[in-house]
Each structure stands twice: as structure tokens, then as C-alpha cells.
Specification:
5-stranded antiparallel sheet; alpha+beta; Immunoglobulin-like; 303 residues
Length: 303
Amino acid sequence: MLSCRVIKQKMLMKKVAAYSFVLFSGCVLFCGWKSNSTLHLSEAGAKSLVKTSFKGQGGHSGKCVQLQLQNLKQSQLQLVLNSGDLLNSSDDEEQDLLVVHNQPIVLNPGETKTVAIEGYCCQLHNSSPGAGSGFKLDKTKNKNLKQLCDYLIGKPISPHLIQEAVWCISDDNNPANISDIDDGKEKQEIKDLRKFVCDLTKKEDPWYSTPQSRVVNESRQILDNPVEVFGNIKYTITTQTPVNAELRNEANEVVLNMDDPKPLPAGTFKYWFHLKIKGYPKGKYHVILKAGNEQILDKEFLI
């Protein structure tokens, strides 16, 4: 009798194990189906699951595009725009827009709705997209822009800095434009972003920063508008002497004197250069440091 009971218990345990395996397998299959249910927007369009229309809102960065969607099926759709996607302008004279961050979209059965899409202009030589401008979904073919998108994942970078980073890659802009100011000191994440872009483009990281307040003219051209220049200048003097600074333009004319009559002891120092440049003509400038009457340093910057 005892052996019969043991056999029955073993058979019962095998049945429980079999049922558990079936339940576990079903769970895995279900979970796998859920994880694979997110479709890229272009794939959903190709399968006639959704109807889409992109329209510009008159901006060139951040949430500057409206996407109208219509779910053509009676089931929920989980969609996504991926980082590295490109909104290709229907007007060749207007800028294309780079999608920097993944942007998920959920559409309920039969639902029609409009969502704001984030994008960044990547053709500075073209006009800013106008309100109502059309776009078609594509992929960027610029490997450096795709690497920038990958770098930005999870990083708290402001939209205007992302835009400057994009233009440094797409239009060979000055990396000094990737800058902001916080009580005269750059935040570490901005320094890291700028270094990444310089390494990616094989450019030298400038000693100075030129934060921009971009201007869009009547032709929707986006113009440079640096508001200030700042940066640390490291120098060494071998004897106690006053150190004076002057700013010279491209014609070697003295634009500004920054004298300090107080002598400094011999040693190595940092000079914090910070200048508001509203109204300054564009071009190259030089910060000249002098120990007494002897020029010890010449640092160039561009505005």
C-alpha cells in the first residue's frame, strides 16, 4: 500500500510540474508578444495600420512638428519614432529635422489624434521650417549624427544645446557654441557634450565659449548671435609684475584695455576672461596678456 501511495504522489507531482511548465510557457509567449508589439511608425504605415501626416509648427528645434495619426484598425497600436530618424522636408530649401530621442505613441482602436514631435534642424544653410511645412519619415545617413543621438540617451541636456551640437556635426559649426552659463561656470554635462562632439568631429575644443541667442530673420534664415565670450586663460610669469590684458580686432586695433596695476608674484595663474559682445562686429579677436611691457600670451576667439 505504501509503495502505491508513493507512485500516486510522484504521478501527481509530474502533473503539477507539467501544468506549471505550460503556464510558464504561456506567460513567456505572452510577454514576448507584448515586447514585440511596438511597431516603428514607418512599419505601421507600410502595413496600412495607421495613416500619418507631419506638419511643421514654425520652429526649428524641440517640439516643433505636429504629427496627426489615425488608427485604421480596431485594436490598440503601440508605435515609436526612433532616435536617428529623419523628418525629410518636402521643401528642398527648408531644413530637415533630426529625431534625437525615442518617442513612443499609443493609439487606441480607431483613434485619431495629434501629438507634438521633437526634432532638431540639421541643415543650418537652409531656412527654418515654416508653419504647415510637410515632412516625410526617413533615416539619417550621417553616422556622426546617429552617434550623437546614442550619446544623448538619458542625459539631461537642454534643447538649445542639443541643437548647437547637431549643427556642429551637420554644418561644421564652432564647438564653442555648445555652451551655457551658470554663474560664470559651465556645467559638467555641457563640457562632456562638447568634448564628445569635438572627439567625434576631430576638432579642437576651443578655450572659450560663445553662448548663442539665435535670430530668425524674415526669410526664416537662422543667424548666429553670440551674446558673450568667456573662458579661462592659463599663464605663467617668472618675476613679480603687473599683468594687463587688452582686446584687439582683426586689424590689430586695441578695442578694450583691461589693466590691473596690482603686481602678481612669480607663478602660474588663471585669468577668467568674460566679455559681453552685443554689438561687436563679427570676426576674429585676440586677448593679449602682458607682464609689464612684455607680451606673454595671445589667445584668439571667433564671433
